[in-house]
Automatic annotation (TrEMBL):
<dbReference type="InterPro" id="IPR036396">
    <property type="entry name" value="Cyt_P450_sf"/>
</dbReference>
<comment type="similarity">
    <text>Belongs to the cytochrome P450 family.</text>
</comment>
<keyword id="KW-0812">Transmembrane</keyword>
<dbReference type="InterPro" id="IPR050121">
    <property type="entry name" value="Cytochrome_P450_monoxygenase"/>
</dbReference>
<dbReference type="InterPro" id="IPR001128">
    <property type="entry name" value="Cyt_P450"/>
</dbReference>
<dbReference type="InterPro" id="IPR017972">
    <property type="entry name" value="Cyt_P450_CS"/>
</dbReference>
<keyword id="KW-0503">Monooxygenase</keyword>
<dbReference type="InterPro" id="IPR002401">
    <property type="entry name" value="Cyt_P450_E_grp-I"/>
</dbReference>
<keyword id="KW-0479">Metal-binding</keyword>
<dbReference type="Pfam" id="PF00067">
    <property type="entry name" value="p450"/>
</dbReference>
<protein>
    <submittedName>
        <fullName>Cytochrome P450</fullName>
    </submittedName>
</protein>
<feature type="binding site" description="axial binding residue">
    <location>
        <position position="454"/>
    </location>
    <ligand>
        <name>heme</name>
    </ligand>
</feature>
<keyword id="KW-0560">Oxidoreductase</keyword>
<dbReference type="GO" id="GO:0020037">
    <property type="term" value="F:heme binding"/>
</dbReference>
<dbReference type="GO" id="GO:0016705">
    <property type="term" value="F:oxidoreductase activity, acting on paired donors, with incorporation or reduction of molecular oxygen"/>
</dbReference>
<dbReference type="GO" id="GO:0005506">
    <property type="term" value="F:iron ion binding"/>
</dbReference>
<keyword id="KW-0408">Iron</keyword>
Length: 509
C-alpha cells in the first residue's frame, strides 16, 4: 500500500475513515462551528433570526428571488431597528443609523463594501470609477473633478440641449403610438433612449443618440456590460482570445473595445479643443475631467460608469412613476389639472418643450408626485453596504464591531411609519410646501445620503419632471388590460419582462 493511501485511510495515525467516523467528524465540525458562532460570534449579542449566527444563505436566496428588500424589511419589523442578517452583516434603520452609515456630517464616513465597489468598477475590468471607490475621501477628490457638471446651475444652463433630447423622445413615442395596435407601447426602451441621450450630453458631449438611432445605441451599452461580465468571470486572457474569433455572434464581446475606441476619439477631439480654446470648453463631465487633467483611461471609464449609473436608474424610476400616477385616478386628475393650468389649452402648442423652471414653480404637485414615487418605490430599495471602521461603532444603543458589513436599506428608511404615516400608501400631498419636515428629508434615502449621495440627482429630477409633464400633458395614459407591469429587484428595480406597457392615446390639448 502506498504512503498516500495509507494516509488517506488514516492508518499512519491509527484512525480508519469509515462512513461512521466521517459522519462523526462532520457533526463535530458543525457543532464546534455552532458553539463558536453562537457564543463567540462577533455579532452574537444583536437581535436577528437564529440562522443569522451561522449563515446569510436565506438572505442570498431572497436576493436571487428578486425581493430582497421586502424580506429584510419584514425582518426589521420583527427584530427592530438593529438586525443581525448574517454572521458578519448588520442592517440598521432610524435616523441615527442613516447618519452614521452614510456619514452625513461625519469626519469618518464608512467605506463602501468591496463586493459593491467591485461591481461598480465592472468587476475590476475598469479603472476605478468614483462610484466604485471604497474610500469616501478619495472619491470626494474625483467628485471635485466633476466640478459643476451635474450641478443645478449646469442643468439649467444646458436646458436647450436637454430639451432637444425630450423633443426626440416624444417624437419617437408619437411615431411608435401611431404604428401600434390600440396605442399600446412597451415604453421602457424609449425612456431608456431618452435617459441615455441626456446622459451622453451631460457626460460627454452627446457621443451618440439613443433616440436618433432607435434603441440600438442603448443596446451597445448592454453589450458593453455583458462583455465586462464575461471578462470578469473568465479573465482577460480568455476575453482577449474570444474577441479574436471571427464569429458574428460574438460581436457583442467586441463592442466594448469599439465603445472604448469611440470614447477615446471623442476624448482626443475634446483634448484638442481644450488646448485650442480652454475658455470655450463645454462644462460637461468630460470637459471638466479633461480640464482637471484626469488620466485619459480613467476618464472614459468614468464617463461609461456615469452613463451606466444614470440610465437605467432614471428609466425605471420614470416607468414606476407612470404606473403610480395612472393607478391612482384622483392623483392623475390633480396632476393633469395642474399641467393644464400652467400650459393652458389654446396657448400650449402640442409637444412643445416644457422648461424645468416653469414646471418647478407652477407645477408643485408634479414635484410631490415624483418625490413620493422615489420614497414609496425607491429604485435601489435594498442595502448599499458599508464596512464598519476597525474601532467599531455604536448605533441604536448597540455596539457593532469593526469590519462588520453594515447597511441602512432604503426601503426600510423610506417606510418608517413614525416619519411617513401610512408608509405603504402613495400620497404625494405629504410633500406639499409646509408639510415636508427635516426628518422626512433626512430619512428619504432614495438617492443615498451624505458624501456619497448620488452625483446625478439634479439631472435625474430634471428628466423626471420634463418627461412626465410632456407625457401627461399631451396624452391620455392608461394601463392596458392584461398587462400587470410587475417589477423585480436585482439591486435596481427592473420591469419583469424588460419593459412596462402603457396605452398612450392622443389628448385634446
Ligand atoms: C432616479 C434616478 C437615480 C437614482 C434613484 C439614483 C440612486 C443612487 C443612489 C442610491 C446612489 C448611492 C449608492 C450608495 O450609497 O452606495 C447613487 C450614486 C451615484 N449615482 Fe445615482 N441615481 C439616479 C440617477 C443618476 C444619474 C442620472 C447619474 C449620472 C449623472 C447618477 C450617478 C451616480 C453616481 C456617479 C453615483 C456614485 C456616487 C459616489 O459613490 O460617491 N445617478 N445613485
Amino acid at each position: 500500500m502506498s504512503k498516500l493511501s495509507e494516509i488517506l485511510r488514516g492508518q499512519s495515525y491509527g484512525v480508519v475513515f469509515t462512513p461512521v467516523n466521517t459522519v462523526l467528524a462532520i457533526t463535530a465540525f458543525f457543532f464546534l462551528y455552532y458553539l463558536k458562532q453562537r457564543f463567540f460570534g462577533p455579532l452574537r449579542h444583536l437581535p436577528g433570526p437564529w440562522w443569522s449566527h451561522y449563515t446569510q444563505f436565506p438572505d442570498t436566496l431572497h436576493t436571487f428571488s428578486g425581493n430582497r428588500s421586502l424580506y429584510i424589511h419584514s425582518l426589521h419589523e420583527k427584530y427592530g431597528d438593529t438586525l443581525r442578517l448574517g454572521p458578519n452583516t448588520v442592517g440598521v434603520t432610524g435616523q441615527e443609523g442613516v447618519k452614521t452609515i452614510f456619514g452625513g456630517g461625519s469626519k469618518r464616513p464608512f467605506h463602501k463594501e468591496p463586493v459593491i465597489t467591485e461591481m461598480l468598477n465592472f468587476g475590476r475590468t475598469f479603472e476605478e470609477t468614483m462610484a466604485g471607490t471604497a474610500d469616501p475621501v478619495s472619491s470626494s477628490k474625483r467628485r471635485m473633478m466633476y466640478g459643476n457638471a451635474y450641478s443645478r446651475g449646469s442643468v439649467l444652463n444646458m436646458q436647450d440641449i436637454y430639451q432637444k433630447c425630450f423633443m426626440n423622445f416624444i417624437a419617437r413615442i408619437e411615431e411608435s403610438r401611431k404604428n401600434s395596435q390600440d396605442g399600446i407601447i412597451g415604453v421602457t426602451p424609449y425612456f431608456r433612449a431618452m435617459a441615455y441621450d441626456v446622459l451622453t450630453e451631460a457626460a460627454f458631449g452627446g457621443l451618440c443618440k439613443g433616440t436618433e438611432y432607435g434603441t440600438d445605441a442603448v443596446g451597445i451599452m448592454d453589450n458593453v456590460m455583458n462583455a465586462n461580465l464575461f471578462q470578469w468571470y473568465f479573465g482577460t486572457f480568455i476575453y482577449n482570445l474570444t474577441m479574436k474569433i471571427p464569429w458574428k455572434k460574438l460581436d457583442w464581446i467586441r463592442s466594448k473595445e469599439e465603445y472604448l475606441q469611440a470614447t477615446q476619439e471623442v476624448v482626443s477631439v475634446y483634448q484638442s479643443n481644450v488646448k485650442a480654446h480652454p475658455d470655450r470648453v463645454r462644462k460637461d463631465l468630460l470637459g471638466n475631467l479633461i480640464l482637471n487633467n484626469l488620466d485619459p483611461k480613467k476618464l472614459y471609464h468614468e464617463a461609461y460608469g456615469n452613463i451606466w449609473a444614470g440610465t437605467d436608474t432614471t428609466t425605471n424610476t420614470l416607468g414606476v412613476l407612470m404606473l403610480a400616477i395612472v393607478r391612482h385616478p384622483r392623483i392623475y386628475k390633480n396632476l393633469v389639472a395642474e399641467l393644464d393650468r400652467a400650459f393652458p389649452p389654446g396657448e400650449y402648442v402640442p409637444f412643445a418643450p416644457m422648461e424645468l423652471q416653469k414646471l418647478e414653480t407652477e407645477c408643485p404637485y408634479l414635484t410631490c408626485c415624483i418625490k413620493e414615487c422615489l420614497r414609496r418605490y425607491p429604485l435601489i430599495p435594498g442595502p448599499s453596504p458599508r464596512i464598519v471602521p476597525k474601532e467599531g461603532t455604536n448605533i441604536n444603543g448597540w455596539f457593532v464591531p469593526g469590519n462588520a458589513t453594515i447597511f441602512a436599506q432604503t426601503y426600510t428608511t423610506n417606510h418608517n411609519a413614525k416619519i411617513f404615516p401610512n408608509p405603504k400608501m402613495y400620497i404625494p400631498e405629504r410633500w406639499q410646501a409646509g408639510k415636508e419636515t427635516a426628518e422626512m428629508k433626512a430619512m428619504m434615502t432614495s438617492f443615498g445620503s451624505g458624501p456619497r449621495i448620488c452625483a446625478g440627482e439634479n439631472l435625474a429630477m430634471m428628466e423626471l419632471h420634463c418627461a412626465t409633464a410632456l407625457l401627461f400633458r399631451n396624452y391620455v395614459v392608461s394601463i392596458p388590460d392584461g398587462y400587470d407591469n410587475d417589477h423585480v429587484e436585482f439591486w435596481i428595480t427592473t420591469p419583469k419582462g424588460g419593459s412596462i406597457f402603457l396605452r398612450i392615446e392622443p389628448r385634446e390639448v
